[in-house]
């Protein structure tokens, strides 16, 4: 059968791989010039490895991607234990990797620590329970860990990640977050892009037709076939008919393209889903912004950044021309002022805050000149549309599933990783699952 796979992220690439192994004739349509979607990487001429436009690592229990990589002969995943920490109001950085780290945390008395610690242990061990969908994370945490813990540990983290939506996020999010997390984190030699490129090469061998820089604009149904219409960059429109469609596009984009296929009632469900868009600012610098920490949650209102990921405290800086790499990350509404800023404005906006963080760590060395701006040699930004679905009650009722009312039109996208937060592991899993149905 002729299959159109819409989207050349990891879900689309995996689906195409599995479908062509089943002897289907597959075409991938990808809007960007480079395959990889949200996991896409880039490389400077003096770097050995690619770097993701948005910080990426694997968890030790990301079994689907680990297994699939082995199946296709890709043996470049490795694991390490970099430090995770939180930055609090006094600008000190506290490691948050182990129960001992948690016990050492100031700001909380022993009673609250034990109470929170036992709930965290319960979440780690308990299977998914329907009660997590009947209350918000805030309600659950206040009820079980107490109001003090909510205010001191969680409130700001939720506000930073979900903005105005912080109060409606279901407790299933917190369960999945705790349940999934592992101390060992994985990375890929050459960056995630080396996995994507490897997969793309396999697809070429399997005679999959990979169309990059091709934006799908509309899908129509003609008898039993789907007509995919779109265009290459700066080219005329073209159309081709397929027996089967697999859409891995973000749901709001898919909904816009399929008004001639699906009923208003079916598409209306998707209008109830809410999303935030990802924004990252990548800093390449001579000295690191963070001394030891890889992953820093910002738990203070004073610093308007969701998190800082000092990638080179995880992966050796020799792979990036000897420079350090730090990511600053946010999830935002499209109209947010940070989304509207150009790259330079964004850098100027964060600079005073970065100077504070940098100074606080390095000023203990007497006569050490602390000026992080002078250390920066390059900076880059990335915007990922619809990258963070909002897991609220509407989401659970209206999220898409593989099967749609239109025969032979399937969906496999990052909304379907719920209750887990999206990830490349689930992209592989979804790609495999959808291919099994066809
Ligand atoms: C900030 C951030 C951090 C992350 N961190 C991690 C991490 O640490 N570990 C991890 O495993 N995962 C992480 N992820 C998640 C991971 O990147 C995604 O779950 C995964 O890449 C999703 O793959 P996908 O193929 O389902 O979707 P996508 O990658 O979104 O692919 C969809 C593709 O569709 C294309 N497209 C859109 N519209 C059209 C159109 N009209 N025509 C043709 N093509 C179109 C897009 O260009 C895109 O390539 C992170 C994501 C973000 C945003």
From TrEMBL:
GO MF entries: oxidoreductase activity
Ranges where the Amine oxidase domain occurs: 10-436
UniProt name for this protein: Amine oxidase domain-containing protein
